[in-house]
Design a protein that fits this description.
A: mainly beta; 11 strands; globular; B: mainly beta; six-stranded mixed beta sheet; five-stranded antiparallel beta sheet; about 60% strand
């Protein structure tokens, strides 16, 4: 158990809908990262927050947005969902920001868009 | 550009050593990581190496880094059936926050 929690574990929804994925980092960690894992794209970095502020952005679609709240939990919002958004979404956390910080991953949220 | 490549499959016998290889393209990589993913589970951090090191050993795991060839390997000694999983290497690139670039993953199958 990494100490990173994600809810829900599974999510089934329809195209065009909007969902929110939630992540609680390990106690004391200030950075939160979101990754998408799909069969065709592999593991892709989406976005990073540090202490409430956006720090780095990857291949995140405009339909997707994220935020980190004062209690350091983070939410990833996915809207106007398409079939291709079906994937495993991981959250990771680290104590600080920067490349020397090891990232600890949560169990993931499996999203299925029908 | 940033790219990390791994072979997709490796099959070994229980008790043998496994060597999983990875190549990366970005010369400004700082830290390189190995993660393990078991079926239906998240990614478990196994080990990491800083880019100015050649080798790191951690119990049954040995990481070798050839910075000139941009080649990274993970050796698992005395491989057990419980080591069957997908292994990902990832690089953290300088000046890109905490972004990790992952390889496609190597599926390790350990036969009894």
């Amino acid at each position: 158990d990494s100490g990173v929690t994600q809810t829900p574990k599974h999510l089934i929804t329809a195209t065009g809908q909007r969902v929110t994925l939630r992540c609680s980092p390990r106690s004391g960690d200030l950075s939160v990262y979101w990754y998408q894992q799909s069969l065709d794209q592999g593991l892709q970095f989406l976005i990073q927050y540090y202490n409430g502020e956006e720090r780095a952005k990857g291949n995140i679609l405009e339909r997707f947005s994220a935020q980190q709240f004062p209690d350091l939990h983070s939410e990833l919002n996915l809207s106007s969902l398409e079939l291709g958004d079906s994937a495993l979404y991981f959250c990771a956390s680290s104590p600080a920001e920067g490349t020397r910080e090891s990232q600890y991953f949560g169990p993931g949220t499996r999203l299925l868009v029908l | 550009g940033e790219d990390v490549e791994q072979s997709l499959f490796l099959s070994v016998r229980e008790g043998d050593s496994s060597v999983i290889n990875c190549t990366y393209t970005d010369s400004s990589s700082t830290y390189l990581y190995w993660y393990k993913q078991e079926p239906g589970a998240g990614l478990q951090l196994l080990t990491y190496i800083f880019s100015n090191m050649d080798m790191k050993q951690d119990q049954r795991l040995t990481v070798l880094l050839n910075k000139k060839d941009k080649h990274l390997s993970l050796r698992i000694a005395d491989t057990q059936t419980g080591d069957s999983a997908i292994y990902f290497c990832a690089e953290a690139v300088y000046n890109q926050g905490g972004k990790l670039i992952f390889g496609q993953g190597t599926e390790l199958s350990v036969k009894p």
